[in-house]
Design goal:
This protein is α/β, with parallel strands linked by helices. It has ten helices and eight strands. It has an eight-stranded parallel β-barrel with strand order 1-2-3-4-5-6-7-8, surrounded by six helices. Helix 2 links the parallel strand 1 and strand 2.
């Protein structure tokens, strides 16, 4: 798992195939090298069709391709891995289904969640939400900067290291302060999708990450 790829994760937020492919193409052009396909309430057929298209784009740019929730679809399309929410199947179950060749990430809202995922063999953590987000409506509590600082400190005190990426309502203006807490990267959706020029916004966010990373 390349750290350079990991530091900016783009999460799709559309079930419309054309819009989804356009957004992925834009962020890849902007330099993002980690794409998570997230299609809530879409049919399995829709997800598989989109997954093949996104995978082709990711391979063109040598980008990591992760699918949200659906372990079986990861196997079908041979994506790089899966991201599992707190209400999805356990990390250990996903590992038994996928094997060691796939990346498995898990959502966490607390140090206790991270400890569980770490013990279960997750490869990385999506930790949040940083602040309110319309993309993921059921996450709680909102962590803010102090929440990340406390979690990273507790990880250090417990000699736990697993890459942590901040999620939830993050904008480019938030990046410097978030990176200063010690997290490894950020996952962004709306701030890029809603930007006047998603390609340039992606480039800007990557520069902010690189400028502020310890």
């Amino acid at each position: 798992m390349e750290k350079e790829n990991f530091r900016l994760q783009f999460i799709t937020n559309s079930n419309d195939a054309n819009a989804l492919i356009a957004s992925v193409n834009a962020v890849l052009q902007g330099g993002c090298r980690w794409i998570q396909l997230r299609m809530k309430d879409a049919s399995e057929e829709q997800i598989i069709e989109a997954a093949y298209a996104v995978k082709a784009l990711c391979r063109r740019y040598n980008a990591t391709f992760i699918i949200d929730d659906h372990v079986e679809i990861v196997k079908i399309v041979q994506a790089d891995g899966v991201h599992l929410g707190l209400n999805d199947i356990p990390i250990m179950q996903a590992r038994s289904q996928l094997g060691e060749g796939f990346i498995i990430g898990g959502t966490a809202n607390s140090f206790e969640n991270i400890l569980q995922h770490y013990n279960d063999g997750a490869d990385y953590i999506g930790c949040g939400p940083f602040k309110f987000t319309t993309t993921k409506k059921k996450l709680a509590p909102i962590l803010g900067l102090d929440g990340y600082k406390e979690i990273i400190k507790r990880m250090g005190d417990s000699d736990i290291y697993i890459p942590v990426v901040a999620i939830g309502g993050i904008t480019s203006e938030d990046v410097p302060s978030i990176i200063s807490t010690g997290v490894d990267g950020v996952a962004i959706s709306g701030a890029i999708l809603n930007a006047p020029n998603p390609v340039e916004e992606t480039k800007h966010i990557i520069k902010e990450i690189e400028r502020n990373h310890l």
